[in-house]
């Protein structure tokens, strides 16, 4: 039996852009992606601390060390520039493996920096 559990978490970053005209997704600074072990096109859940909105989308790689967190397309309606969000991905694995699995959790500083 497999279970789903937390794989990666970027805890409390600030939305820097909201681009309603884009097709969809969330653009994340490549440095943050690497630190949290997220890959491009990976499904993530975005939790808005300011308004309680939750949404699922996929990751687009942003410029390295740019601090970018940009909600694109319809997701841009779920947050405003300056809102604080938590970005989470999950994985599925056997229960026995899950017991010893350690997720990658990062706590960026001001400016969405590591």
Keywords:
single chain, Barwin-like endoglucanases, mainly beta
Characterization of this structure:
- The protein has an eight-stranded mixed β-sheet with strand order 2-6-3-5-4-7-1-8.
- It is mainly β.
- The radius of gyration is 14 Å and the shape is globular.
- Helix content is 10%, strand content 47%.
- A hairpin with a 5-residue loop joins β4 and β5 (54-62).
- It has a single domain (2-94), classed as Barwin-like endoglucanases (Beta Barrel).
- The model has no long low-confidence stretch (mean pLDDT 97).
- It is built from two helices and eight strands, in the order βββαββββαβ.
Secondary structure: elements and pairs:
Blueprint: E1 2-14, E2 17-19, E3 25-29, H1 30-36, E4 43-48, E5 54-62, E6 69-72, E7 84-94, H2 95-98, E8 104-106
Parallel strand pairs: 1-8, 2-6, 3-5
Antiparallel strand pairs: 1-7, 3-6, 4-5, 4-7
Structure in a nutshell:
With 114 residues, the protein is mainly β.
Strand content: over 45%
Describe the largest sheet.
8 strands, mixed
According to DSSP, the number of beta strands is 8
CATH architecture: Beta Barrel
User: What Rg do the Cα atoms give?
Assistant: 14 Å
Coarse structural class: mainly beta
The domain count comes to 1
> Within the largest sheet, what's the order of strands?
2-6-3-5-4-7-1-8
Pattern of helices and strands: EEEHEEEEHE
Bin the helical content. under 10%
Mean pLDDT: 97
Unreliable stretches (pLDDT < 50, length at least 5) are none
CATH fold call: Barwin-like endoglucanases
